[in-house]
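#struct-help
A.M.: can someone run this one for me? Single chain, 144 residues.
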Amino acid sequence: PNYALSNDNGGWCNPPLQHFDLAEPAFLQIAQYRAGIVPVSFRRVSCVRKGGIRFTVNGHSYFNLVLITNVGGAGDIQAVSIKGSKTGWQTMSRNWGQNWQSNAYMNGQSLSFMVTTSDRRTVTSNNVAAADWQFGKTYEGSQF
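D.P.: on it. Structure tokens below:
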């Protein structure tokens, strides 16, 4: 999005309008190359995923960056909370894409996650990562 522009034809990818980035071959299936901005009708469909939601923990001691993948149901995450075995639930903030961050010290604690999608459904994955979890590893939780 470019918030310096309005959400009319000057700012066509700004909220509340939806924005789709397509590779050129996909774009050419629905429009001519010179078309530029193309209105698209779409509807969301529920995703069925095999296995649980995956949490890849990156960062360092006071900066936990968690990549969340394999999300079923609506598929798009709206909110995430993290809980250590010695803490209460703490809201994480979106860093970019599906990377969510926490600035809490969680070393030596088992980790639990609460994920909420755009359809307002929430799934809690308790003790996904044991107290000896490591940065760079992926842990699997519950699924929608």
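A.M.: thanks! The longest strand covers residues 77-84.
D.P.: also worth noting: The radius of gyration is 19 Å.
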